[in-house]
């Protein structure tokens, strides 16, 4: 069965578990009292010590998870555990962390209510994402689906001429089974999915695409590709004049059209249908005005030469990546995507977000550090399939943020909100 | 005197203080013993408690700065100070922080030796940037210059037709003095530099460009533009059918061609000349191989559809932004730029980096938080002109990282370095 | 008076002559018989000899212009006149040419009815553009405005180091008056509008922006910039290590973000309001379906990584450029832009197109060749201001084509139309 | 055997016929007298009638092809043959046409000497491409290879929600054999190669990739996709709320990242090695200066936000497309690509060009028109495999043009060349 056929099968499995939105809407009933409320979380929008204590207790009740490192009750003493995370260590940078939710998600793996931790020093960010989460929850929640996944490593080989390159490629192209073997011997988690070629003159980039289990996987794919390249160099019928393990094509730590068009890490798409009354009660505007804003701002984004069209993916993703020990520098890849907002039946609002390049994981990197580990437990993102689950939470969180900022722009609240939450006094 | 003439004057002032690289090279003498050393900082590449204590003492000696919050000696008790930074507060995310240096910088404002704090959970990152810093220091340091600055807010106005839009623009275009007045009444720090127009059918984006003192300034320009828009709406001869305070053109939290081509925040360019012996001794390769790598990888980056060409700006910037309380989500803007590496006289290597969109500041946002404030003091980045100084430190840090990764790729060390530093055992 | 102030003044003048669309709509009355017609031009959609003769007679009546070279009645004998157009001449490539119209335009310079010649070998193209032209004419025509103009030449200078580059730029930046003098001595038509700088490490691109009278002007700006560079090299306080007259930044023969964001050649925006009955009668669909198509296809265009969003600017522009002796290779610049379609009052359709990079002229290049000259006369595009007039005709033509193709997609006619017109039998 | 395996096999076949460049260099011997010559074609660089006659005779001798329509000796009388090419016909636009060559090509299909017709009104263009062709021929010629091919049509389907979309895709993904059948019944030439999906919220673009025999194939893929869509709509388990036959994702008449990264039409890469003496004698500069120019201008192209990096692909392609009856509007796709120039052994120059999106054909469209047909015969591009052969000629022609313009920039001849050839007197 070919790769594309297998991908088809996966898609079927993925989608079979998702409720149609019409059913979601039938099941929920908007609670108009709730619309006028602020937050299910105690001490809404506050930062003081008392409300913090209430929230910690509330989260314990809701999720069973305690957060002693995050609150400062417990302190990490053993710096030995920092091996693999830092060199020339001088201490711990401390970043204020808030929580939003519950974010209600219908995913293939993320299902139910989630309290999402966000680490940031930017006032109004948590308030805004929380508002978006409320609006979606009142309308039955967010459908969020991890569509596909792949982490790339892309070595480059240069030859004397096209002719030598042709001989090399002819030899290379039927070696995928050998490479699969090499990968399985190098890593327990990595699987080679595909090998692609991009030729330019006497030089070719070879793109190896992997899945990497529950790890983000950048190191894993480096080690595997390194072993593959050793095999190539020992066996190639024609030696390259130059070769490098990464051609700068794989999209590591940068936004690229390749990652945007295909996938890097995980590709997630999420949607929600926001009802008229919730738009009015929670977001203080109308579907028509939000849609008008989004259409106008989409054109302006295109005029500015952005990759994709979105509002502020980076805000929510940075805060969530930071709290959960992701490689935060990957925000430079993950911030790219597409947000779409349009009216449905005149008065309701359809919102979707698509995030094609989420390089995230639930083991490895910073995920095992004390506060980060607690935050992943708060999201119940540990163990098998938890990386894809986490990606679906990312999608739903981002949708909440896009909805809230577009509403703030449409209603004219944007400047005032930042006056209230973004200033010291 | 027109804006462009004033910009010219500024450039002259900026550049008059910079030493020519030939003079820098005359003054330094490469110390071959030092090449074989590892780091001036005690306990090189280590993460254990003892070496941490040595390093803290060393930094105190070198800079006079103590880091009690970072080391955990002191703990923030007063959550009231978190107002403006967070809502629904649950605790502090803690991120391991290392230090590199000294990074020797010849800037217009950043001058001398700097010990740069980097907060990250990615093993090998600090080691790699430290290696790059060493290589540049042994060759006399990095020249790093903040070339220009501007933060944008870009409202959009939509009209019934082109004709109404024409009347509006004709009215708008000579109001800049009135807008200057409004800005000076709204903010002590913001100054309106320019107003630009981008028309599309019956819709026009109006781009207001500000300087914002020592603050990153995103809120400041929102408040000022909000006041300007109030004036516009009260006085315009023709009312827009729609208007929004931000058209999504300004480039906030996204990479755009506009920010890349012009500037967003601060534009910095930095350069260094790395001598043959240092390339061999510290970087274990040759100028020719690094240049060959960079040329090959530049083409591959273009093939991947990246904006600009660079290696991993995001790694260093995320770590430095995080340690110093910047808006880390702005890495989605700042990671874009150009790195260039080429041989000089066959055996030496010229390296330059250009970062056109550094939205950074030394007051406001997270810069006053305990550990972040300490890290800014470590860099002596407080007070007048410190934001531009900080931007020049960003440029030099990024250059160190680009040099080190390119050398790792050229020498074939990349995979091994991540095996040593990027794994738990 | 500064450059931006002058640009403001120009905008005022440009727009003062344009009728508001509401007035246009008041003045026209849709003729329902006409909706069911096909074309005002005799022998609608036909290619045979008889209908050709009728059309030539009709065009003579309407415009006073005869087309003897185009019809083959007259033949160019004197190849001497080909000097400056071709080398190693072997003959004349002959391209079938049709006509659409009348295209009714409300521009700052293009005003009234135009019969637009289109040279192409692609069946259905003329039929489609003609249909779009009809639809707009029945609704009062197209408003098309040339907003601004500028042709660039962008030399690059490289120095030993940033320091030398700073000295050079400090010297360069107040030389604009001297450069103005040089330009006025080099060309009767060119005027230097602005000089911009883009720095990267020790290298700077200097962008000279010109207006070039009625010529497209690429050679003119080369000659002028060459003279400026001679002055620079003779007088600079510090010699560049390298310099080249064109850095490949100016956007000649390529789509660039710079040209898209600013302007290259002429920037035109055009709009029309298409009424419900015309959409139904002429385009066989509804405003809602066209708007839905356009919204959906805009997102897909963004997903594909296009610069801007448009349907097929290149079709109309290539055919019009070819017929009128433009530099057809400039379609690689001109095809970029933005099309927007949205419903107005539910049932009508607003359409706008924006073309930021029309490098066009009415003298020089191929504009004086026999058939090309005739076609420019057919459009009455000769003499002062005719280049901007021609640009406005380009805008209106492109709008007609965008409307027609979007309607074909929305109605499902697209495939059938190409079966009828695009096949030999 | 899977698609990617088949592609591998194709690559092997393609490359097995190409001579290594080292062998090419061994076989040729640079003739120093020839370096000082100008052109093998009679009447070099001239446009007068006498030299035209000599050239026509020469081409007849060399290729056996006569060009009576091009020279005007014969005139097309039967406008009936214009069916499928034009509507509302008014006559023939006439474009001056020159010839360059011989261009010596080592391709998989294009092998030997070619005299390439170029239709243009831009002085210096033919002279420049001819110079580049000479330089390559003196060094053994150009290796030019068609690497892969694919023409896309990309319908879009929109659903009520992600859930419905999932059901649709699960159904769709194993229908490729049925679609193959439909295609084979709809067209004798089209073959469905692949089907890809790009999802965004409740909307998915389905990309059908075809080969289209010797035709450019845009209409062919429309008709086939239309039949496939009919099947889909009749059989889908869930009806889309909207669908359109082209989502604007396929890249028709626009430069896109998708086409640049993958392929649209044909992807060609070509290379040549230019020897020191030829660079000096024919191009009046050195390898080092050309390489320096190209490196500098590559960075500037990136700074300008171009897709890919090239000099003026559009000039040669427009002229060649025009002369041979291609869809000239496709220059808006074809102009994108990568040019690379670097020194080899210090004094020689390696040049490569890569053109990923050549939508070209040798039947259909304008290829059967009188002058266009003659020009295709001049290139011996008729019959099986001639479309790929033609694509390889495009690659070699473009390489000649890139080499010549870069040399003109490096030597400082650029402005003077346009003074001599680009002006009427």
List keywords for this structure.
eleven-stranded mixed beta sheet, alpha+beta, homotetramer, 44% helix
Layout: helices, strands, pairs:
4 copies of one chain form a homotetramer.
Chain A: H1 3-16, H2 21-27, H3 32-36, H4 49-63, H5 68-71, E1 89-107, E2 111-119, H6 125-138, E3 142-153, E4 156-158, H7 162-172, H8 176-186, E5 191-200, E6 203-211, H9 218-235, E7 242-244, H10 257-261, E8 265-274, H11 276-283, H12 287-303, E9 308-309, H13 313-323, H14 331-334, E10 337-344, E11 348-358, H15 370-378, H16 386-411, H17 414-421
Helix pairs in contact in A: 6-11, 6-16, 8-9, 12-16, 13-16
Overview of the structural elements:
Four copies of one chain form a homotetramer. Chain A has helices spanning 3-16, 21-27, 32-36, 49-63, 68-71, 125-138, 162-172, 176-186, 218-235, 257-261, 276-283, 287-303, 313-323, 331-334, 370-378, 386-411, 414-421; strands at residues 89-107, 111-119, 142-153, 156-158, 191-200, 203-211, 242-244, 265-274, 308-309, 337-344, 348-358. Chain A has 425 residues and is α+β, with helices and mostly antiparallel strands. In chain A, strands 1, 2, 3, 4, 5, 6, 7, 8, 9, 10 and 11 form an eleven-stranded mixed beta sheet that branches. The radius of gyration of chain A is 23 Å and the shape is globular. The relative contact order of chain A is 0.16. The model of chain A has no long low-confidence stretch (mean pLDDT 93). At the B-C interface, helix 1, strand 3, helix 7, strand 5 and helix 10 of B face helix 1, strand 3, helix 7, strand 5 and helix 10 of C. Strand 1 (89-107) of chain A pairs antiparallel with strand 1 of chain B.
């Amino acid at each position: 069965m070919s790769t594309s056929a297998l991908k088809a099968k996966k898609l079927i499995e993925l989608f079979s578990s998702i409720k149609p939105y019409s059913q979601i809407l039938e099941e929920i009933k908007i609670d108009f009292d709730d619309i006028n409320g602020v937050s299910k979380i105690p001490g809404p929008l506050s930062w003081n010590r008392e409300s913090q204590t209430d929230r910690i207790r509330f989260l314990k009740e809701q999720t069973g998870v305690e957060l002693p490192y995050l609150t400062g009750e417990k302190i990490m003493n053993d710096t030995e555990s920092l091996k693999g995370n830092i060199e020339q260590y001088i201490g711990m940078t401390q970043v204020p962390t808030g929580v939003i939710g519950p974010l209600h998600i219908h995913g293939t793996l993320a299902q139910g209510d989630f309290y999402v931790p966000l680490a940031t020093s930017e006032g109004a960010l948590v308030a805004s994402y929380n508002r978006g989460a409320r609006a979606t929850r009142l309308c039955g929640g967010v459908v969020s689906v991890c569509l596909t996944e792949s982490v790339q490593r892309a070595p480059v080989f240069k030859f004397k001429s096209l002719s030598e390159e042709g001989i090399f490629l002819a030899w290379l192209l039927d070696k995928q089974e050998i490479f699969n073997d090499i990968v399985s011997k190098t890593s327990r988690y990595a699987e080679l999915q595909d090998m692609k070629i991009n030729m330019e003159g006497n030089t070719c980039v070879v793109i190896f695409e992997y899945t990497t289990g529950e790890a983000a996987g950048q190191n894993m794919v480096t080690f595997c590709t390194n072993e593959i390249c050793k095999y190539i160099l020992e066996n190639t019928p024609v030696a390259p004049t130059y070769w490098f393990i990464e051609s700068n094509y794989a999209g590591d730590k940068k936004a690229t059209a390749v990652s945007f068009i295909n996938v890097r890490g995980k590709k997630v798409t999420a949607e929600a249908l926001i009802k008229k009354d919730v738009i009015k009660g929670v977001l203080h505007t109308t579907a028509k005005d939000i849609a008008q804003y989004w259409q106008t701002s989409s054109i302006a984004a295109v005029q500015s030469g952005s990759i994709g069209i979105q509002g502020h993916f980076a805000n929510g993703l940075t805060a969530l990546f930071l709290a959960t020990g992701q490689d935060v520098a990957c925000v430079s890849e993950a911030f790219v995507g597409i947000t779409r907002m349009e009216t449905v039946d005149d008065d309701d609002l359809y919102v979707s977000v698509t995030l094609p390049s989420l390089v995230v994981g639930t083991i490895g990197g910073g995920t095992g550090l004390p506060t980060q580990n607690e935050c992943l437990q708060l999201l119940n993102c540990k163990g098998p399939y938890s990386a894809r689950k986490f990606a679906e939470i990312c999608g739903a969180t981002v949708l909440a943020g896009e909805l809230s900022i577009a509403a703030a722009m449409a209603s004219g609240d944007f400047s005032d909100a930042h006056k209230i939450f973004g200033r010291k006094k």
